[in-house]
Amino acid sequence: MLFSLLILTAALAIGQTVLVTGTVTSSDDGLELPGVFVTVKGTTLGAITGPDGKYSLQVPAGSRTLMFSFMGYVTQEIAIEGRNTVDVVLKQDMFNVEEVVVVAYGTQQKRDVAGAISSVKGSDIAMMPVQSFDQALQGKASGVTITMPNGVLNNPPVIRVRGYNSISGSSSPLIVVDGVPIFTGDVSGTNAPSNALADVNPSDIESMEILKDASATAIYGSRAANGVIIITTKKGTVGKAKVTYDGYFGYTQPYRLFDVMNAEQYIEHKNLARANNPASGLAFEFFIPTDAEGDPIDTKWSDYIYQTGFQHNHALTISGASAATSYFLSLGYTGQEGMIQNNSFVRQNVRLNIDHKLNKYIALGANFSYVNSLGKAPNTGSLAGSAFSTAGAGRLAFVLPPNLGPYLNDGSYNINGSAIGNMGQPVANYGYYNPVPIFDLNEFSTETDRVLATLSLTITPIKGLALKTVYGIDNLSVEDNVFQTGLTGDSYASNGYVYNRFARPTRWTWTNTANYTATIAEKITFSLLAGSEQQYTNNVSWTGSKTNYNDSFFNDYQGAFVTAGMGGGGRSENYFQSIFGRLNFDLSKKYYFEVSVRRDAFSGLAVDNKWGNFGGASVMWNLSKEGFMSGVNEFVSDMRIKASYGRVGNMSGIGSYASLFLYSSGVYGAVPMWQFTQAGNPDLKWEASDKYDIGLSFGLLNDRIQADINWYYNDVNDLILNIPQAPSQGIPGNVVPGNVGSMFNTGFEFSFTTYNISKPNFTWTSNFNFSTLKNEVTELAPGVTELLGYTSGLELTNRTVVGLPIGNIWAVQTNGVDPTTGRRIFVNKDGDEVLYSHENSNKWTYRDDGSVAPVISLATDGKAAGSPLPKFYGGIDNSLTYKSFDFNLGLTYALGFYVYNGSKAGLRDQRWWNNSVEVYETAWKAAGDITDIPKPVFNDNVSNGSAMPITENVEKGNYLKVRTISAGYSFNKIPGNSGIEKIRLYAQVFNAFVFTNYTGSDPEVSSNGDTNLSPGIDRNSAPQARTYTFGINLSF
Amino acid sequence: MKNILKISLILLMAFAVAGCEDYLNPVPETQLDASLAFETKERIVGQVNGLYAFMKSGAFLGGRYFVYNDIRADNFIPKSTNLVTGYATWNHSLLGSRDEVQNLWGAIYSAINAINIFIEGLDQNKTDGNLEGLITDAEYNQYKSEALTLRAMCYFDLLQLYAQPYNKDNGASPGMPLRLTANIIGGNNDLARSTVAQTYTQILKDLNDAEPLAAATYANALLRTTRIHKNTIIAFKTRVYLHMNNWAAVKTEAAKIVPAAAPYVAPTGAPLALSSTFAAIWASPYTTAESILSMPFTATNLAGTQNSLAHYNHPSSSESYYLNVTGEAFLALNAADARRVLFQTGTVSGVTRYFVGKWQSYTVQSDYAPVLRYAEVLLNYAEALVKDGNVVTQQAVDLLNAVRTRSYPAGAYTLASFADAAAFNAAVMLERNIEFLGEGHRNMDLLRTMSTIPSKGGLPTVPPTSASYIWPIPDSEISTNKLMTGNGN
Q1: For residue B82, what are the CA distances in angstroms to B88, B348, B470?
Q2: Is residue B8 part of a domain?
């Protein structure tokens, strides 16, 4: 910000002037302040104080006010009142009331912002052992939920700003980095996820602004409905070159792993289950084989899957600025091993941000960053779509029997074709894979190269007018490499498999803006912005695969294989064209008005629907400037009431060619063919949201306590829904998209920052935020009563129906276990209790009279079993400094939601699957036993919820998480002439604890990734990771 | 200063004219806009091949359709209990929500809609005169006959799993919703089920319409095996009439392509005949004169994961099905029988098991999937000859022997082998059971004769009165098609 103020010039105005001089000192220590900007209010005239804190300035006659501003200090306006000497004591901005926030296409003083914007400093997240900044935003901002799906490295978190704003499309916000919307989401096609946002090194970030209401986002028009996150990278600040090094190392571990039966417990339990089922099909009992040493086998499979991973991170920056030029250069290296074996993430990046003022009219800016990242992961079964993979490590860790070993006694892998070998057990074929050979031999990696760059030119032809053109590119290359051995596992049948994919999404964005700012009669300040924007995105990818290796020696695509697969890939392009404008206006800093409009065209829509109009408006009233408040100014230092409305859009659900009717080509045997594959919709248009917001901001006790309170109501309409078609129509995909649905999100947001203690040697600052969310679907497509949400395409777990929140968990009600018979009590649609006995020919019988009951099914007997959307959520951050010590505690919490604990269904399944120790200890054994776990009957996959979700496995997810604990010590006075100014050493625990009654691994989970229709599902996912780090911050 | 102003003005004008209409109307480069689909002959032929490709979906004739029809019956025991690979079909515990129930239905109706779109498009373009110079009338007729025949096959195959057999009540039971027009933009959800009889009427109408339009034959064996010609239609009609117990019609149709006495070679059109050896049918290039219609595969055009016949029949697959050694077919097979010789063996839980060896390419899984073989026509004919009059004839015995003695010369029957028509019928059914192991005939044969599905692997039998005798209707159809009714299971 300092740099942009330098653009102010000291041009002499024509006419009579008066010389004003003075000294600026600090209230803190009384010392003179050099570098303070002194300006004549309402003009561009100004001066900068010298090393002695003195300034002198020719002030036009009739000027009434001088403004003194300096970073870290509260800006003051002083009436000249005819004086020739104006001395000023500047107060330190202890409570950050002077903060500047980044808004769409510009910046504003935080207090001038009428929209709902949460601001998070880069320094708050830079030290966290995460891969991308979005992972670190959890609990930092009101109205924003961040869900880490699990502990797989670089798995993109689920980001929701003010609830769910789409059903078929994405509900993820638009991400704008240094003015350019960038690619988001998982760009990998392998088991190693690759979050596109990880290509912005968190330590390069100056600030993150989350734009929540329509007045803040409306200028982004058709992409604003899900909120906007604006990332601003660092710039150099005036002064000599500053060099910093930040590094940490640490280790990461899984936590809250499942406690499963050991071999002895396993055979005892499974043999009991076998005895309880005469039709078990098991010819003999399970037993414990012995290993090569003659010891009984007792395999703890999680030991072969999880590990303690080592992580280290280094960031070196050089920055500085002169009056004309500022620069920021950074180098970063991140090397992380995950808590899952073979899971790793390596990132190397460079960034150069440079701004240069050519002369008083022209300024140039350039940001350039290059990032290379390499992710590796086994099949964790934890990414969307893979929950039921028989290779999924998260599941293999608990499903495999402990009486099987990874190796046979001759040292070879224990395998039987694709699956694990049975070691003589009565189960012929376990079907599931032995994780050891597939961990040893298979490889899945994704490497990305990314150039994010912007070039800008700003011309200031006349006072107050800035013409700016910004050209940005986002060039991403992704290379996926997959190798699967032919020895066992997924590619056993094809005798080895390699797959390569190279994708090159590229985008350019060209933005032109004209911004005119002026002050009229010292009272009215207005700012008028007009602009145009174009964005072109091109997606090109190719894929190739081969099977049947000539020799198991070959494990990459370039190797020799017998069979080459059909090459594939894709090509698409899309284009945005927009014009937009904004008018900001304030009267005496008391009354604020803002209007913004945007007109967008998107190439993916049909000819007649390409263009859409969006806009928003806000008003703000600063009560604290009113006379009637003067009596309480001592207590209420600031108070503002805000209101906004806007209509914004969402296009994330619209494909590049969504409106077209298309044929795709392939082969029939060896001859070419064309097939009708896409039913388009020529009437498709944007999804739109009407957003309302009312806010109250206040500062108490000289702004020692600052608060923002907002109420919002977000009416999402024209939702694009894939309207389910009767499958007998034979429409490709059995859906046709249409603008048919509606939904709302509403809630309150409370955000408090309190400066509890602010002594020089002792500070204590607290941030507390609390948000509520009520989401309700109000309309689906005509004739559609529900939208189904599947987990990995197999298990129907969620339904979206009118009158309830999106993605309700759907399950058959169960009422525990009948103590007399030990059978699971199901409740049918009529409310009758029905018992299930797997081994009987009449499996379903009424509990009351034992008569045969109709089969229970999810379709007929399922019911809404709870919403996976937290009703309340937020974060609590406390920072303490005492002398050279600093301490931080970051908590996040979410309340009032349900999780479908599908993993529990697996952990209690009575096939040969291993079970939790809880099953061993508490399963029903004799009449009168009171328990949640029914009589074990071998092969029973119904009683515990594998066959269909049951309410027994739907649990409250309430949690409080200790997200970060850190403690540091700073050495400020370094002896000698090392050049080191400051050393800080710190230790941190990330994901330290979770307090919850949830019985799964972690209630913060999303087995289905960034999904709208099936959230809140915990199915066979790897757990979250806890990470301990030790770091150093050096500045020279 | 003036220059700066000029530059600024130019820049401002640049914004004003910025934007590019071409960018706003991108044309896909890897897919074809529907309006261009009938522009060249290559595309029209491509669409015809596309219809076959719909049929060849892994969920349908690419593999799974045959598998379901086999594993429902008594010949197979699964290695795996994976529900994804048909376990619930095998143990008769299917619900309308199961994948196979929904996916097969979806695959067949996708094919039907593609056929309807093609027929309408072809006819519209014909009416508009757009086809002149592109294709000849004969080609137009041929393409249309192929489309109609494929539609008939789709409805016939739907009936086999989703409806009661015709012979239960002469087709009075609920059949299929008959979709006979193109659905392009959706919304046409509600359509009630026609009866089984009405569905058969439509199937026969399509086949009878198609027969005179069809190509007599094709230039090479590959085309004769993978594209429909006149004798394909006739052969398929013998199957349709057989399922309706319309013996006279079976005889009429069969007589068109089966001479009264050996050698059995179709007298006109494609020279259908039995392969000299059983093994040759299953060996590359898979295009013997016996293979009337098969789904072709290449290494780069496969049925997909867990779909191929090899996946379900090969001993190397962890999810394959081995032969039930107490099943009628296995018990009846002589060790010298070529069909037995073709079996593969594998060890399951330490026990040697037998697997149908018709699809031996496991690593690539590109062996063709047989839809219709001449051997079936001969057996259809033999059965109809005897059942129409209940007298065993030499012609019927010869037809039966033609199939049987090819693989097992020592097993030749004579007229004296059969005490009565029932004995002959039993022998034909047994022969079908043996001959078509793995080809998806067993369940169809059990159901059309209203037989109880025998027990296997400890499972109870499924009598025709059981709700499990046929598949349920998919939940997704019932929930979207308000006029749809279920099968009571």
Answers
A1: 8, 16, 21
A2: no
Choose among A281, A548, A603: nearest Cβ to B25: A603
* Contacts by residues B119-127 (CB-CB < 8 Å, ≥ 24 positions apart): B119/B144, B119/B147, B119/B148, B119/B182, B120/B181, B120/B182, B121/B37, B121/B38, B121/B47, B121/B182, B122/B38, B122/B44, B122/B147, B125/B38
Give chain B's count of helices (H) and strands (E). 21, 7
Instruction: Name the token pair of A264.
Output: 């002895």
Residue A148, pLDDT above cutoff 70: yes
By CB neighbour count within 10 A (0-12 exposed, 13-18 middle, 19+ buried), where does B416 fall? Answer: exposed
Give the model confidence (pLDDT) of B125-146 as tens digits: 999 999 999 999 999 999 999 9
**For the segment B397-434, what is each residue's pLDDT rounded down to a tens digit?**
999 999 999 999 999 999 999 999 999 999 999 999 99
The DSSP bridge pattern shows strands A100-103 and A65-69 to be unpaired
User: Which chain A residues in 244-283 lie under 8 Å from chain B, judged by CB atoms?
Assistant: 279, 281, 283
Distance CA A638, CA A706 (A): 9
Q: Is B405 within a domain?
A: yes
Residues 6+ apart with CB under 8 A from A714: A162, A163, A165, A689, A690, A691, A692, A744, A745, A746
**How many other CB atoms are there within 10 angstroms of residue A556's CB atom?**
12
A580: closest CA among A132, A36, A106, A134?
A106
Of B231, B227, B182, B173, which Cα lies nearest the Cα of B200?
Answer: B173
Q: What is the pTM of this model?
A: 0.84
CB spacing of A725 vs B12 below 8 angstroms:
no
Tokens of A580: 């937009």
The hierarchical CATH code for the domain A2-93 is 2.60.40.1120
Class of domain A101-239: mainly beta
The CATH number for B337's domain is 1.25.40.390
Cβ within 8 Å, pair A566-B300: yes
Chain B: closest CA distance from residue A502 (Å): 17
Band the pLDDT of A6: cuts 50, 70, 90. very low
Cβ–Cβ gap B114/A670 under 8 Å = no
CA distance B136 to chain A (A): 20
Please give the torsion angle defined by the CA atoms of residues A117, A122, A123 and A126, in that order, rounded to the nearest 10 degrees.
Answer: 140
Partner-chain residue, chosen from A279, A670, A675, that has the shortest CB–CB distance to B50: A675
pLDDT band for position A553 (cuts 50, 70, 90): very high
Q: How many residues does chain B have?
A: 489
- Contact criterion met (CB < 8 Å) for A726 and B189: yes
Report pLDDT digits (tens) over B339-357. Answer: 999 999 998 877 899 999 9
Two tokens, residue B42: 């290559």
A668 to chain B: closest CA residue: B53
What's the domain range around B112? 40-454
Distance (Å, rounded) from C-alpha A183 to C-alpha A200? 11
Q: Which range among A411-420, A462-471, B1-10, B100-109 shows the weakest confidence by mean pLDDT?
A: B1-10
Q: How far B303 CA sits from the closest chain A CA (Å)? A: 10
Domain count along chain B: 1
Q: What is the ipTM of this complex?
A: 0.92
pLDDT for B19 equals: 58
Greater confidence, A407 or A279?
A407
Residue B15 counted as domain residue? no
Given this model, what pLDDT does residue B14 score? 59
Mutation to test the A interface, candidates B1, B2, B4, most A Cβ within 10 Å: B4
Segment A832-886, tens digit of pLDDT: 999 999 988 888 999 999 999 998 988 889 999 999 999 999 999 999 999 999 9
In chain B, which residues have their Cβ closer than 8 Å to the Cβ of A576? none
* A to B CB pairs, distance under 8 Å: 285
Asked if residue B22 is part of any domain, the answer here is no
